[in-house]
Design goal:
mainly alpha, about 70% helix
Length: about 190
């Protein structure tokens, strides 16, 4: 029995399987449900779902920036609601206009913080979804107007198993591309 030298070294000797990083499954709620629940809760569910998507991206990529911005957006919402309640109570107790002007200015500032944190969170999440290892191409216009619903539209059908298979097959494909044509060995007649 003769040794064959036509095979690259990684095929000649058995070795450990390639190391790959398993992906957790993305959130599996249909985008239609996200849209319906966002309408029913007046946008509160959309903000919470944006945090859920950002948490998944944090688990997959390790990038915590989108999660922080989306969480800031969701936390500004109750602060704005609380300010409206406090403003209504103060306006009924005090007859002057001064407290209502201050509360109105704080309300405008909180709404501005809410919009900025939403936009920064949505676009950092878009960047994380477009980067490796997720690789989902996304539109900026759709992200601006419908971020949580648009992201969920793409994540609902995202194939985690296919991504793991790509990771497993990537070294083999690269190795096959680098291997040249086999060298023909002269036939050795059997020894009698």
């Amino acid at each position: 029995m003769s040794l064959s030298y036509n095979y690259p070294p990684q095929y000649a000797y058995p070795s450990a399987p390639p190391v790959y990083r398993g992906f957790p499954a993305p959130p599996r709620l249909h985008w239609g449900w996200v849209l319906a629940l966002s309408f029913l809760t007046l946008g509160l569910f959309a903000g919470v779902w944006l945090v859920v998507e950002a948490w998944w991206v944090k688990k997959v990529t390790g990038n915590a920036k989108p999660f922080g911005w989306c969480l800031a957006y969701v936390l500004v919402m109750p602060a704005t609601f609380l300010l409206i309640i406090v403003g209504a109570v103060v306006a009924t107790l005090v007859a002057s206009n001064a407290p209502s002007r201050v509360i109105g200015a704080i309300y405008v500032l909180l709404r501005l913080c809410s919009v900025v944190s939403y936009l920064v969170g949505a676009f950092t999440l878009k960047g994380a979804l477009e980067a490796e290892p997720i690789d989902i191409p996304l539109s900026g216009v759709m992200t601006f107007f419908f971020a949580p619903i648009y992201f969920q539209y793409h994540l609902y059908d995202y194939n985690v198993e296919g991504r793991v298979a790509e990771q497993l097959n990537a070294p083999t494909e690269a190795a096959l591309a680098s291997v040249s044509a086999p060298v023909s060995m002269p036939e050795v007649p059997p020894q009698a």
